[in-house]
Every structure is written in structure tokens, then in C-alpha cells.
Design brief:
The complex is a heterodimer of chains A (about 55) and B (about 500). Chain A has about 55 residues and is mainly alpha-helical. Chain A is about 65% helix and about 0% strand. In chain B, the strands form 7 sheets. In chain B, strands 1, 2, 5, 6, 7, 8, 20 and 21 form an 8-stranded mixed sheet that branches. In chain B, strands 14-11-10-18 form a 4-stranded parallel sheet, covered by helices on one side. A 3-stranded antiparallel sheet of chain B has the order 15-16-17, with no helix packed on it.
């Protein structure tokens, strides 16, 4: 949690927002998990593209 | 025989002209008038601006592509539109001034049966003293990533800064919007996180104070009034999404800010709550506000009708409801569907060139009365879809004799996929992958948040970076009209 201890200060504007924990940060660059997300995001984006053409 | 003239070859104009050329028979002409000799995949300018790509990787020469396609290409800027013709010409025409092809400075008239205005924006650096050079160009104190040349210059300055930090000098970096009426917050958002990534990679992140400054009333507004995403069982605002990223990266923010003056190493700003302040910087990338390119219009007698054809901001009027009304009365149906000019049915405007009926974000002013709010973005996917939609309508008007546009593409009925880079690397890179549906919130159809939560989502990760990388190659491939290009969606 070094990024939280380093960057967040009490009663500064960033004190009231959510900050990712280490496990969230790990999954952002975990190749296997991100490959699964890659497939899912592409499907979701294609659905939006399809819905946007009339 | 019909002649379609397209003014501009950005995302929207290039899409419209290439599809028209693909669909129309050889007896019809497609003419493209654009002052640039090269096409630029603008989203990747961010990577040029931090040294991860060369300028040559994001541009290509238009002439050979148009020659292969059979498009009549004139490297020139449009000067005026004459929708009723003139004293010596019965047909409507545009006047153009060459910027290349060995005819620099020469003017000529080009008649048309259908005109598509896709001129994009004028980068209005001079709207902020010190941001511009007083001649319409970028000033000496800041950098920009709006064009490939600007991005190349930005990287040169960034690399100097990194060298100085490696030599032990602490530096201040400011990124954001350079005026209260800017759009394109997403580009600045991408650039600031790519700078953070590059400084970490160079091992000098601790030597830099990076600050975000923006005209958004809340982080994550992006000029579309923000959005909501399903996250952990909640419909979470993009404010949380954006603030979280800035907090994680240790980047403080100044929001609701109109930058009113830029000097060497310092900028001044005014905020929505009346606060006035200054930020010092050693390196600053500030997006300028956009305006129309300054096209004039004349009737058959030569009388100036610019105010009839164009809105005061220089963008062309189309089939939108331009009635001035308060935010509470705005409707999704105010937004244009066919992009046809109401006075001249053979004139259309696409991409950034059409005049939006009003802002998408809620209008706001400082206590001094200075408007401070993002203006509507019309880039990327919406521009491509609008360009193709107008091309389909014109095709049907030419070939099937349709007396009105046959296709529609309202931004209030259209979604957008957006991938905002936050660091370029095959295994360590990141990007925020977002979709929003519809772009313009429809509070009648989707009360409360204005959008369909099933089609509006976002997440940060390596997958988004891979998608951004694929999009770079896919859209350059498509723009070069390589085999199968028509199968790639806008």
C-alpha cells in the first residue's frame, strides 16, 4: 500500500476518493486475467458499435 | 453525373469521401479539399508526445491513397461557400486556396452538387494570452499534442526535462486545458498518465511535481457531463473513477478552472468558486479551445450570409434545435440526426464541423461571469459514424433520387468506445477502456443518469492498452484503404 501512504494526505481533496489496493493493481497487469478481460471488453465494445449504427 | 465535394480529410471527412467513392459509380465525382498532405491518426499523437512512437508512425501521405481510390484530391484550404452560385456561375461552388501540389497560393472555384463540410476545428490558441503566438499558432511557453508536429515538439521538450531531472533538478509539470471553454479533456488525461508512466520508467518520478488543471466542474466530466459505470454492485460516477486514478498516481488536481493567462513558467487561472490562482511550471501541455475554421459564405449577389450558414462559433448549422433554452429544458431530440443544413439541402456538416445545439455538460460561470465548462467532444467513433451516415444519405440521394436524407446518426442515439492510454508497454502498459451509451445523455429514456448502464462501462488495465494498440494499426489500415477496409467498423 505504499502508493496510498505516499500520496494520500488527511483532508486533502484526494482523501475522500477510493484508491485501489495492491490486489486490484496486480490484476491490472496480470496477463492471464487481462487476456480474459480483453475478450470481454472487445465483445462489449462491439455491442456498443452495433447499437450505434442505424 | 454528380459531384460531391468534401472539405477536410480528418476522421469524418476521410470516412465520408472514401465510402462515397467506394459506393458511387465512375460517372460521379468525389473531390476532397484539404490543406494537409498527410492523414493523421490523432489518438496516437499521445505516444508521439512521450517518445513511444515516431511522427511517421501516425501519419501517411494522402495523395497516393486518393489516387488509387479515384478521388480527386486538391491540397488546398476552403475559403468560402457560395451555395446559390455567383454572378458568373449558376451552380453552387466553393472557393479554395492551394497549400501544396506546386500551386501554393493559387485560388480556384470548385462547383458541387453535394457539399460535405468536414473541416474540423481551428485550434484557437490565441483565445488565451500567452498560450498562442498571436498569429493563430502555438506560443513559446507550452506544448501541445493536437497535431503530429506538435506532439513531436512536445516529446523533444519532455526528453530535455527528463535529462535535467536525471541530472538532479526537480521540475514542475502541468497538463490539462488552457481555457474555460476547451473540449478534448481525454487527450490531456491520456498525456498526463503517459508522462507519469515515462517518468517512472526513467526512474525520475520523484523529481517531478505533476498537476492537472481542467475546466471540468468535476473530474471525469470529459465534456459529456460524466458517466456512470457498474462497479462493485454500485452505479459509480466517473468522478470516482477519475479521482481514484489521480490519487493513486499522486497527481493533485485543479478543476473548474479557466486559464486566463500563460507566461514563461507560470499560468494564471480563475475558478468556478471565484478563486484566482497561479501555477508555476517547467513543462506544460495545455489543450486550446476549438473554433470553426473561419469559412465565409455568400449568396448569388455576393452578399455575406456567413451568419445564416454558420453559428457564431464558426461551426456549420445542421438539423439541430438551436433554440436557446435553459439546461433543464435540454432534450436528446435537440441533437441533429441527418446533419443536413436547414437552408441548403445539398450541404452537410460532419465531425467537429457541425454546430452542436448546446453543451453536453451543464453550463457554469464564475462569479465574474466567465463561462467555465467543457464544450462537446465530437471526435473518434461518433465522427466516423456521422461521416459514413451522411455518405449513405448522399449516395441514396444521387443513385435512388431520395429527396431527403435516408440515414440518421444522432449523438443522443449513438454510443462511443474510448480507450485512454495510461502507459505504453506490452506487459506493463495500461489504459482506461470506456464505453458510453448514448454519448449525449437522454434523461427521458434513462432517468437519473441519462445513460444505459448495460452499455456504459469502464475499467483500467493492460487489456485496454492492447485494444488501443490494435486500434492504432486497424484504423491506419482502414484509412489506407487496404484490402477489406470496408469491413472494419467506424
Amino acid at each position: 500500500m505504499e502508493h496510498i501512504e505516499k500520496n494520500i494526505k488527511p483532508y486533502e481533496p484526494n482523501f475522500t476518493t477510493m484508491v485501489p489496493t495492491n490486489i486490484v493493481r496486480f490484476f491490472r497487469t496480470c496477463v492471464i486475467w487481462q487476456f480474459i478481460r480483453f475478450i470481454i471488453i472487445n465483445i462489449k465494445m462491439l455491442a456498443v458499435v452495433r447499437k450505434s449504427h442505424h | 453525373m454528380a459531384r460531391v465535394v468534401v472539405l477536410g480529410a480528418g476522421v469524418s471527412g476521410h470516412t465520408a469521401s472514401t465510402f462515397l467513392r467506394h459506393w458511387l459509380g465512375k460517372e460521379h465525382e468525389v473531390v476532397v479539399v484539404t490543406p494537409n498532405s498527410k492523414w493523421n491518426w490523432i489518438p496516437s499523437n499521445i505516444w508521439v508526445g512521450c517518445g513511444e512512437m515516431s511522427k511517421e508512425e501516425v501519419v501517411f501521405e494522402l495523395a497516393p491513397v486518393y489516387e488509387k481510390a479515384g478521388i480527386d484530391y486538391r491540397q488546398a484550404k476552403a475559403v468560402s461557400i457560395h451555395p446559390e452560385g455567383g454572378e458568373n456561375e449558376d451552380k453552387p461552388y466553393v472557393t479554395i486556396e492551394y497549400t501544396g501540389q506546386g500551386k501554393e497560393g493559387q485560388t480556384e472555384t470548385v462547383t458541387y452538387d453535394y457539399l460535405i463540410n468536414a473541416t474540423g476545428p481551428k485550434l484557437n490558441f490565441d483565445a488565451t494570452p500567452g498560450l498562442g503566438n498571436g498569429k493563430g499558432g502555438l506560443g513559446d511557453y507550452t506544448v501541445s499534442v493536437c497535431t503530429a508536429d506538435h506532439a513531436e515538439h512536445a516529446n523533444e521538450e519532455l526528453q530535455k526535462l527528463i535529462s535535467q531531472m536525471k541530472a538532479g533538478q526537480k521540475k514542475k509539470i502541468v497538463v490539462g486545458t488552457g481555457h474555460g471553454m476547451c473540449t478534448c479533456q481525454g487527450a490531456a488525461f491520456e498525456y498526463i498518465f503517459n508522462i507519469d508512466f515515462e517518468l517512472n520508467k526513467a526512474g525520475v518520478r520523484d523529481m517531478a511535481e505533476i498537476t492537472w488543471i481542467s475546466n471540468e466542474s468535476f473530474l471525469g466530466d470529459f465534456g459529456i457531463g460524466g458517466l456512470h459505470l457498474k462497479r462493485g454492485g454500485y452505479a459509480a460516477s466517473s468522478r470516482l473513477f477519475a479521482e481514484s486514478l489521480y490519487a493513486e498516481k499522486g497527481i493533485p488536481w485543479v478543476i473548474g478552472a479557466h486559464v486566463n493567462k500563460v507566461e514563461e513558467g507560470k499560468l494564471s487561472y480563475e475558478q468556478l468558486d471565484g478563486t484566482e490562482g497561479e501555477l508555476e511550471f517547467d513543462f506544460a501541455m495545455l489543450i486550446p479551445p476549438f473554433a470553426g475554421v473561419g469559412l465565409k459564405a455568400y449568396d448569388k449577389k455576393g452578399e455575406d450570409i456567413t451568419g445564416k450558414l454558420f453559428a457564431p462559433n464558426g461551426f456549420l448549422k445542421v438539423d439541430a434545435d438551436y433554440t436557446a433554452k435553459p439546461y433543464e429544458e435540454w432534450k436528446a431530440s435537440d441533437w441533429p440526426r441527418t446533419y443536413q443544413n436547414p437552408d441548403y439541402s445539398n450541404i452537410f456538416a460532419v465531425g467537429i464541423a457541425f454546430a452542436p445545439p448546446h453543451l453536453i455538460s451543464k453550463p457554469m460561470k464564475s462569479p465574474k461571469g466567465t463561462p467555465i465548462n467543457p464544450t462537446p467532444p465530437r471526435t473518434g467513433m461518433p465522427s466516423g459514424i456521422i461521416g459514413k451516415t451522411v455518405a449513405m444519405s448522399i449516395r441514396d440521394m444521387i443513385e435512388k433520387g431520395a429527396d431527403k436524407p435516408t440515414h440518421h446518426a444522432s449523438m443522443a442515439e449513438m454510443g462511443a468506445a474510448c480507450v485512454a492510454s495510461a502507459g505504453k508497454h506490452l506487459t506493463q502498459g495500461m489504459a482506461a477502456a470506456l464505453t458510453v451509451y448514448p454519448v449525449v445523455p437522454d434523461f427521458e429514456k434513462y432517468p437519473g443518469i441519462g445513460r444505459d448502464l448495460d452499455y456504459t462501462f469502464g475499467e483500467i488495465g493492460l487489456a485496454g492498452h492492447w485494444i488501443k494498440h490494435i486500434l492504432h494499426h486497424m484504423f491506419l489500415y482502414k484509412a489506407k484503404l487496404k484490402p477489406g477496409w470496408t469491413l472494419i467498423p467506424e
